[in-house]
């Protein structure tokens, strides 16, 4: 199992062994925009979800704090997200961190769930207690940059996505609110015209009230070609 360790603003650390990893999908608050996005994906051959929003179970060991993501080909890319990390039995025990869901786009046309199990969910090493930023969540920005020149590819706020409380309610209803559960938020729209198939990704959460930020960043590493 994977154990994640996070540094909090006061200098303390929290560690948790991941037992359940979940990726939310189609999780924008503007469901008309989500429907438009689904239609765009359908033109690329990506199957539509049967339920909106969706939630995909991911192998727990794919929750990683890493600077490298090994990929099988050049048609993979990340998605800027926030993540909830549950460390104890109450909502005071929930951490908020920055994350990037690296996805196999070739596999995505066959199954979104399969595509998200092909690469890790990269999480930052810093976190905030959710309760301490709950009064200003919608104002926290979520941005991503790609490539050596750090081209901006995603730019939104947490207000663009379904709230952490929404997903905590879902976890509670399903008996998944427990220490060791990590939930990824789903992502915001990409900037048109930017090549998402870059060799590096950087994601940032920034709290404008305190000017504090959380980041995660990694480079992709091509695996050797298969034999046979």
UniProtKB/TrEMBL annotation:
Domain of life: Bacteria
UniProt xrefs under InterPro entries: DUF2848, Fumarylacetoacetase_C_sf
Gene3D superfamilies: Fumarylacetoacetase-like, C-terminal domain (3.90.850.10)
Pfam families: DUF2848
SUPFAM superfamilies membership: FAH (SSF56529)
Protein name per its UniProtKB record: 2-keto-4-pentenoate hydratase/2-oxohepta-3-ene-1,7-dioic acid hydratase in catechol pathway
Species annotation: Rhodococcoides corynebacterioides
């Amino acid at each position: 199992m994977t154990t994640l360790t996070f540094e909090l603003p006061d200098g303390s650390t929290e560690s948790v062994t991941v037992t359940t990893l979940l990726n939310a999908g189609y999780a924008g608050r503007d469901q008309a925009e989500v429907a438009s996005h689904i239609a765009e994906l359908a033109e690329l051959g990506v199957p539509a979800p049967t339920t909106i929003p969706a939630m995909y179970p991911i192998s727990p060991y794919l929750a990683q704090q890493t600077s490298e993501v090994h990929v099988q080909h050049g048609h993979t890319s990340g998605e800027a997200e926030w993540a909830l990390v549950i460390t104890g039995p109450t909502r005071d025990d929930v951490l908020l961190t920055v994350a990037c869901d690296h996805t196999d786009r070739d596999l995505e046309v066959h199954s979104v769930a399969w595509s998200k199990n092909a690469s890790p969910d990269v999480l930052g090493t810093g976190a905030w207690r959710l309760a301490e930023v709950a009064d200003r969540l919608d104002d926290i920005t979520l941005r991503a940059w790609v490539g050596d020149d750090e081209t901006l590819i995603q730019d939104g706020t947490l207000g663009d996505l379904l709230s952490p409380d929404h997903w905590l309610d879902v976890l509670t209803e399903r008996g998944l609110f427990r220490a060791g559960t990590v939930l990824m938020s789903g992502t915001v729209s990409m900037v048109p015209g930017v090549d998402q198939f870059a060799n590096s990704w950087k994601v940032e959460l920034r709290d404008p009230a305190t000017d504090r930020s959380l980041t995660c960043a990694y480079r992709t590493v091509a695996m050797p070609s298969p034999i046979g």
